[in-house]
Amino acid sequence: MAGYQGLVLRVDLTYKKVYTEELNQKWANDYLGGKGLGIKYLYEEVGPGVGALSAENKLIFMTGPFTGTVVPCSGKLSIVTKSPATGTVLDCSIGGSAAVEIKRAGYDAVIIEGKASRPVYLLIEDGKVEIKSAQNYWGLGCHETENKLKVECGDDFSVLSIGPAGENLVPFACITSDLYRQAGRGGVGSVMGSKMLKALVVKGTGGVRAADAQKLMDVAHDAFKNDLLTDTNLWAYTDGTPMLVELSHTTGILPTKNFQQGTFDGWLLYGSCYGPA
């Protein structure tokens, strides 16, 4: 099916097993995007009584049908699991290159199951998948971990890693990718740490097939020209997300004092502004 590679990579850390299976095409049609499809897999495979930090919980890295194409804003990776912070279903997205590398390696998803007996990391290079010791990386922060793994594996690999917070099961721990990208909601880093998985290191050299590549290119070009690169959306390029500080403040949803308040009198000091603070 165009837009999908048709394969799911499963990694059982308890038994050190790695295998692939066909993507459920019906689910892919019924639950569009990495978020929807990832939640469907979690719903079918993890029961309501399973704890977020138990070996029976699963950590799902899911791409979408546009991942690896020219479609704008299609590079996010959906990470789906049970949240240690809420005890219920969690979807968290992360930017960077990991989603594209997973897709180019030939997989629509990587599903982590079980729990390793000692720290490990997962190395994926196209069809070659290895579970390797991460003993020398355990205890390191994400930046140091990523830099060292790139020296060991290659600078062209994408790295998803956890730091001491994830290792120590802090319920709001993040997963970091490309040094400055975080999956920052719900404690996905804690789930990764509970499985003794320090990092996922991935590189792919394959492509992604579109049903009509030229039409996809035309639609993407039109979106860039008429929707993204316009005066209305210029703020995204000149100021970035700090512009949202003003919007959040004026609508009463700017987290202040651990969300005891929804506004902050000093917001001009932190957000983009066009006049004196």
UniProtKB/TrEMBL annotation:
It comes from the Bacteria. Residues 4-206 form the Aldehyde ferredoxin oxidoreductase N-terminal domain. GO terms for molecular function: electron transfer activity; iron-sulfur cluster binding; oxidoreductase activity, acting on the aldehyde or oxo group of donors, iron-sulfur protein as acceptor. It comes from Desulfoscipio geothermicus DSM 3669. Pfam families: AFOR_N. Transmembrane segments: none annotated. This is Aldehyde ferredoxin oxidoreductase, N-terminal domain. InterPro entries: Ald_Fedxn_OxRdtase_N, Ald_Fedxn_OxRdtase_N_sf, Tungsten_al_ferr_oxy-like_C, W-dependent_AOR. SMART domains: AFOR_N (SM00790).
